[in-house]
Design goal:
The protein is of the alpha/beta class. It has eleven helices and eight strands. The chain starts with 15 loop residues before the first helix and ends in a 10-residue tail after the last helix.
Length: 274
Amino acid sequence: MHVPNRTKVIPMRVTLPKLQERARGGEKLAMLTCYDASFAAVSDAAGVDILLVGDSLGMVIQGHDSTLPVSLEELAYHTRLVARGSANAMLVADMPFGSFQESPGQAFRNAARLMAEGAQMVKLEGGATMVETTRFLVDRGVPVCAHIGLTPQSVHTLGGYRVQGKGDPAADRLVADAKALEQAGAGFVLMEAMPSPVARRVTEAVSVPTIGIGAGPDVSGQVLVVYDMLDIFPGRKARFVRNFMAGTGSVKGAIEAYVKAVKSGEFPAPEHCF
Ligand code: KIV
């Protein structure tokens, strides 16, 4: 019987300290969502720095109208697939709704599950309320990416997918939240849907890298949902999304174009900003 020679590829993933150092040196970081092994391999080869197994999978993979129904087991499954398909990019897994809000202990147990599947960091939605949990996780060896601004898991308290941080009090709150989360040990601060000047204030207020989605150009890196930037998600396209498939003709070409546009600062352009 012929036994295929399957040499296991040992991942040499870029680490959080390395990415923080590169961002401090002025390099823009390119983050992209990813949910399976094939996209993971293509994104890795295209030079994506950080793969985010986002709970957006509830909408773009599962067809729900929000991210709320995604379970920890589903997130763990997709994290396993992305880990298997990639070897270089840093791997960040989202903590789904209901898996971390109850207590720091609950968050640690569930974060540990995602780390066991290959995640190097977990992402938690929420501002000041997540400070204690962030500190608890980081102190126990779980790197945390904070997610502030538009936090889709709170769609029903926010009253829709709306731009956040409008007006001085709301902007001041975002800056204060980011500083408190950094103090608690967050390694990245991800900011979604806010006016560019507010994201700039946050970036200037913290020393860890900031990653924006609909947060303008004055941040340390960008993230998009991969199916949005390939223009294959049938829903309404947000203002901050650019179709990178146009003019490139292949998935790999589109992702390479995204990485290049993020690194050069060409994306986001004014038309993608609030
Ligand atoms: O779940 C996700 O894809 C996200 C990004 C939109 C940042 O949280």
